[in-house]
Structures are given as C-alpha cells and as structure tokens.
C-alpha cells in the first residue's frame, strides 16, 4: 500500500467492523470483528502465525481461561507460518486489518505501511503500562523504524552468544577455562596439539566453524571491532570492516587457520553439520549461541549416558577493550496495532492494557505452558509437560502472542547444570553487548544492493583467513565494496543517522 489515502479508504470500508471500542457502541457478538460483546466484554481480533499442523480450537480451555483473565473476547485469526508473509501483504493491501497483527520482521511492506499510517506509533504511550514500560532500550531501538516504535517486540535473549567448550578436555589437559584472547588461543592450540582425548592420535583440533558467518562476526567484537557500524570520529558512522580492530581480528583468524587450530573446510561446511565434530570428539570449541551448549550436552549424553559433565559454556573472551559481546537483535518480530480498526486513543489504550497483561507471569505461563493438570504437571519448582497430543493442541501456537517483557516468566522444565549455566551467561552478557547504532536505519541502497555488498566483504574475509589474499588484497575488496554501492550506502546511512539524532 503506497499511499496514505489507501488506508483511509480501507478504514471507511470497514465502518464499524473491526473496532475495539465501547465508545462507538457496537453491540455485536460476531467474533469476526472487534467491538463490545453483548455482555459488555471488549473484543479483540488478532492475526498470528501457526508453526504447528493444527490450530487450537476456538473453545480451547486455554483460550477460555485467557478470555476470563483478560475480560476480553479474543478472536484469533490463524495463518499457516509458511504462507504468513503472503497473507500479511494481502491483508495490508486490502486495508481491512485486524486490531492486532503479529509482524514477523521489518519487511518492505511493513516498513511502508508503518510509514504511511497503517499502524499506531506506540512510543509515547508505553510509559503508562507496568510491563511495557520496561522494554529494553537496545531492543526497542533495534525493532524501530526510523527510530519510531510501531510494534511491541517479541523478546529473545539479547546476550545470547557464548563459547561452548569440552570441559572434559580442559580437565584432561589440566587447563583452566579461558577468559582472555591469549588464553583462548592457548586452549585452541592445546586442544589441537596435546591429545585432549588421550587416544594417542593426532585427530583433534580447537575450533569448529562452518560457512555460517556468525562466529567470526562475534569474535571480531572481542577484538574491539564495532557491531556492523562504528563511530567515524566525526559524529557519523563507518562500516566495521574499515576499522583497525577488524583487521586485528582477521589476523588472529588467519593465524589459527594457518596453524590448523580450526577446521580447514569451514568455508564450505554446511551449518547443519557444525555439531558433529564437537559431539564426535574431533573439535573442542564452538562460538555460537550459548544455548547450543545444552544441545551439545544432550547429544553427547544420547551417545553415552555416562558422559556427564563433558560440556561447559563461557562468556566472551576479554580483549583490548575489555569484555564485549555481539548481541542478537533481541527480538523475533513484533505485535503491531492497526489504525484502521483501533481508531481512537481510548481504544488503543485498551489494546495496550491487554498486551501489557499478557506479560504478567500468570498469562505467560498460561499461553506458554497451558493449564496445570491438562498440559503439564508440577513437580517441585519445575514442570513436566504432557505427551498427550490432544491436550497439547489446546495450547499450540499461543506463545506467538507472548512478548516476554521485561523477561520470560513461563514455567521451566527441570534444569540441568548446563542449562543453568547458559541462563547465567546470557544474563551476564546483557551488561557487555555492543549495540549496532545502524539497526533502526532503513536504507534504500541496502534494500537494493545489500546481498551483493555483503558477499564482497564475506568473500574477502574468508580469502584473507585462508591465505588467498593479503592485506592489500583485502583493501582492494574494500575499494570494490565502495564502488559497488558501498559509498552510497555509507552516505545514506549517515544522512539517516543525522536525522535520527
């Protein structure tokens, strides 16, 4: 939808349909639209994706409990996740929007719709709600469009990254867990050269990596490189690959590659194969999301139930600028409120009150875990989920409207030592994450040329690591990046950044 008038026309077509309002005096009990039910209960219509094969039935006891607790008549419009983007775009184009829509990402269509007035700008209102007022500043900025908040983000761990390591190998070699870059290098070397599995063979190495770029991006931050965009010294932004810290990181990567401390085939290894060398006892370190550690721990235990305590998870390694970690964006999509159906501030505040309430522990547990005695049983301070597929259907997909603000308060399954350590690492990481100042800036140049620009720098990084090019070759790649649209990209980002500031 390119013009604001399109949304106005759509709103006129709707007349009193899809309006969450007692003020407008709607008396319908029709669940297809929002308004006020005959019994005085407010109605709300929500469009959301389902990643499961079946939707919860309308009379699901979990949904009934949700309506009882929120005093809302909740109409859920389920869309299969595989076709959600298409349905989202069709709905936007029609102008007939539900009250609330789950937005999976900052797609061009959502950005355009937000800019042309299809959704409420929520920033000025959030301070009035006990949970929503606690939205994380970095994540709110990451999820924003032109610095404005058009949706409540669905939170994910911001400090999610960590270092998964073979604890049994450290113990076998009498090594402490590494904390600095030098110690990290020494551990990689010992895991490669000193027979950590004790089989007398030269068949192990330190770090396992794949063609997924995340670990290299993450380790660059340890060396002091910025997260995608850094301060250019004049109040503007410069790309990370033009900083000296980025080159220091590259030299380290090149060194560990040349010494055989990382797998030689990393540039072509499929990311799905990444766990295999770690679980099979070939590699001792993975730089990935911290929760990877609990999956590796489980895979090793599945192979050998006696292999307890083989896996540990650590924070970032301390570099020249101290402890630094690359955050995730901190969210997975957001929940937006349409202006075509939620017409007045009074209506908006009712919807925000409803969304705020979904962040209460009781509602998080309801939508995330279900009902005690039906979807789970309680045992001490954890829960045991049911295996009854019919009971699970009643709660499937309802977590898609959870925002976890200020934090995830759903009920936990039994915690292993590794799971507990993962939670500690991710929490501690929140203090050391390096935000990307360019995250809220929507670049037209990048929309057109982003993949090409990214490929130039990713290829150059790999070629430098494996020794195919030297520093001059890398600078040649930077020059190509600039002439292929990079200069225009930097110029546009800085104009957007100046306007945002």
From TrEMBL:
Any signal peptide, and if so, which residues? 1-26
Q: Keyword set for this entry?
A: Cell membrane, Lipoprotein, Membrane, Palmitate, Signal
The record, for PROSITE patterns, names: PROKAR_LIPOPROTEIN
> Would you say which domain of life the source belongs to?
Bacteria
Q: Which InterPro entries match?
A: Bact_solute-bd_prot1 (IPR050490), SBP (IPR006059)
- Segments traversing the membrane: none
Pfam families to which the protein is assigned, alphabetical: SBP_bac_1
Question: What is the protein name stated in its UniProt record?
Answer: ABC transporter substrate-binding protein
């Amino acid at each position: 939808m390119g013009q604001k008038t399109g949304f106005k026309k759509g709103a006129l077509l709707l007349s009193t349909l899809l309006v969450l309002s007692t003020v407008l005096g709607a008396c319908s009990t029709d669940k297809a639209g929002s308004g006020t039910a005959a019994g005085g209960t407010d109605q709300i219509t929500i469009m959301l994706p389902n990643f499961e094969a079946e939707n919860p039935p309308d009379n699901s006891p979990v949904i009934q409990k949700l309506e009882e607790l929120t005093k809302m008549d909740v109409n859920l419009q389920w869309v299969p996740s595989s076709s959600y983007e298409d349905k989202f775009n069709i709905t936007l184009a029609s102008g007939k929007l539900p009250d609330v829509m789950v937005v999976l990402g900052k797609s061009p269509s959502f950005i355009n719709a937000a800019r042309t007035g299809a959704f409420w700008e929520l920033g000025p209102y959030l301070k009035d709600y006990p949970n929503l007022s606690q939205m994380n500043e970095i994540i709110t900025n990451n999820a924003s469009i032109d610095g404005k908040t058009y949706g409540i983000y669905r939170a994910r761990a911001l400090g999610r990254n960590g270092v998964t390591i073979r604890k049994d190998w450290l113990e076998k070699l009498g090594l402490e867990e590494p904390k600095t870059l030098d110690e990290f290098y020494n551990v990689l070397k010992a895991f490669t050269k000193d027979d950590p599995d004790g089989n007398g063979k030269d068949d192990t190495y330190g770090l396992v990596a794949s063609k997924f770029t995340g670990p290299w991006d993450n380790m660059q931050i340890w060396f002091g490189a910025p997260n995608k965009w850094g301060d250019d010294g004049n109040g503007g932004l410069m790309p990370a690959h033009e900083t000296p810290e980025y080159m220091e990181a590259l030299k380290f990567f090149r060194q560990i590659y040349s010494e055989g401390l990382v797998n030689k085939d990393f540039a072509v290894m499929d990311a799905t194969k990444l766990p295999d060398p770690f679980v099979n006892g070939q590699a001792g370190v993975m730089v990935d999301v911290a929760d990877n550690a609990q999956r590796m721990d489980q895979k090793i235990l599945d192979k050998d139930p006696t292999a307890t305590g083989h896996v540990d998870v650590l924070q970032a390694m301390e570099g020249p600028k101290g402890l630094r970690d690359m955050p995730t964006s901190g969210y997975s999509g957001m929940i937006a409120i349409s202006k075509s159906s939620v017409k007045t501030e009074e209506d908006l505040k009712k919807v925000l009150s409803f969304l705020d309430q979904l962040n209460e522990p009781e509602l998080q547990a309801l939508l995330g875990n279900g009902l005690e005695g039906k979807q789970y049983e309680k045992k001490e301070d954890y829960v045991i989920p049911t295996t009854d597929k019919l009971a699970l259907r009643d709660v499937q997909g309802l977590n898609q409207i959870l925002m976890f603000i200020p934090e995830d308060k759903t009920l936990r399954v039994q915690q292993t030592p590794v799971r507990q350590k993962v939670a500690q690492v991710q929490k501690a990481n929140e203090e050391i994450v390096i935000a990307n100042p360019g995250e809220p800036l929507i670049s037209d140049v990048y929309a057109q040329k982003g993949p090409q620009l990214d490929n130039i720098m990713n290829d150059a990084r790999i070629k430098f690591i494996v020794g195919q090019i030297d520093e001059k070759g890398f600078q040649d790649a930077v020059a190509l990046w600039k002439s292929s649209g990079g200069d225009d990209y930097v110029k546009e980002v800085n104009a957007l950044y100046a306007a945002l500031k």
